[in-house]
Amino acid sequence: MQVPVPEGRIFNIMRFSTHDGPGIRTTVFLKGCPLSCWWCHNPENWGHVPAVVYITERCAGCGACVAACPHQALSLTRDGVQADPVRCRGCGACVRVCPAEARESTGRQIGLDELMLTVERDTPFYDQSEGGVTFSGGEPLAQPDFLFAALERCGRSGIHRAVDTSGFAAADVILRAARAADLFLYDLKVMDPETHRRCTGVDNAGILRNLEILSGAGAEIAIRIPLIPGVNDDSRNIAAVGEFLAGLPRRHPVDLLPYHDTARAKYARLGLRREGQAAAPPAPERLAAIRSELSRYGISAHIGG
Questions:
Q1: Residues near 149 by Cβ (< 8 Å), separated by ≥ 6?
Q2: β-bridge mates for residue 43, sequence order
Q3: Are 255 and 223 in contact, with CB atoms under 8 Å apart?
Q4: Which of 237, 238, 270, 278 is the most exposed place for a label (fewest CB within 10 A)?
C-alpha cells in the first residue's frame, strides 16, 4: 500500500535568496510557529492555519470579494468589507479577485510535487554557487512530515538542504532532522529561562538541549544570535552564551544579527501589538564589544545584516 505524500502549509517561496545559507538559495517559508518572539519579522507565520488580512485603506468598495466568496463569509458595509469569522475558511478566493490588492493571504496548502517544481527550477544556480534550498518559517520543524518528505526529495535530487529553526521541537524530531538536513541555521535567543519565556512565549530548556544533541550528532550548524537591545545584548547574557557555546561537543560558526524594525507595518496590518517597537538597533560599538566578549570563550562571531 502506497503511503500518501503529505501536503504542507507555506507562507511564501523566495527564490534567489542570499541570506539563508551558502550560495544562491530558494527559501521555503513554512507556516506556523510555537514561539511568538516580539521581534519576529514574520508575525503572519505564527498561526498554523492560512488566513486573510484586510487592508482597509486600499479597499475600493467594489464588492468583488463579496461575490467571489464561496462560503458567503463577506459583506460590504459602510466601514468596509466585514468577514464572518465562523464562515471564513481563509481559502483566498477573495484575494484572487481583489483589483485593489486590499486582501492578502497569509498562507496556502502546497503539495510536494508542486513545491519541487519550484525548487528544482533553479538547480543550475545552486550548482554554480554551492547553494540550495532552505526551509524556514515560522518553524519548519512544526510540520515534520512534510518537512522530512521535502528534505528527502531534495536529497534525491542532489540539492543542498538547510533548516532554519528555533530548535523548539521534540528530541526525536531533532535527531531525524540531523539525518536529513545538510545544514542547520539555529537561533540562540536568550539564555535566562524566565526572560526567554517572557519574550518568546516558550521555555528554552529543550532548545538548548536540542542544540547539544545536534552538535553531538555531528550536524553542520551555523548559530544565529538575534541581538535585541534590552533583551539579550547585555554582558550577562553574552557571557552565558559564550560559556554555553564553548561547552558544546563541537565548535560552530556564529552570526550576530542586529535587530531592525522592518516588520512594523506587518504588525499594524495584522492588528498585533509589538512589545519592542520602540527599540533601536544595537550601536556599532556595542556589536564590536559583543564580538570581543565572545572571543574570550574562543568563539569567533561574524556580524550579519
A1: 5, 6, 112
A2: none
A3: yes
A4: 278
Q: Which fold has domain 8-47+110-303?
A: TIM Barrel (3.20.20)
Amino acid occupying residue 188: L
Residue 125: predicted pLDDT:
97
Among 303, 205, 278, 290, CA closest to 38? 278
**Residue 207: helix, strand or coil by DSSP?**
helix
User: Would you call the peptide bond into 242 cis, given omega within 30 degrees of 0 as the criterion?
Assistant: no
Q: For 52-105, which CATH class?
A: alpha beta
Rounded Cα–Cα distance for residues 105 and 285 (Å): 40
Cell of 23: 550560495
pLDDT score for 305 = 64
Surface-to-core class of residue 231, CB atoms within 10 Å of its CB (0-12 exposed, 13-18 middle, 19+ buried): buried
Between CA 93 and CA 280 the distance in angstroms is 39
Ranges of each domain in the chain: 8-47+110-303, 52-105
Q: If you average pLDDT over residues 54-65, what whole number do you get?
A: 91
**Residue in the block written with cell 517572557:** 198
Q: Pick from 10, 70, 35, 31: which is nearest to 167 by CA? A: 35
d(CA 116, CA 5): 13
pLDDT at site 269:
65
pTM of the model: 0.86
| DSSP letter string, 214-231 | HHHTT--EEEEEEE-TTT
Contact between 247 and 208 (Cβ < 8 Å): no
> ω before 63 within 30° of 0 (cis)?
no
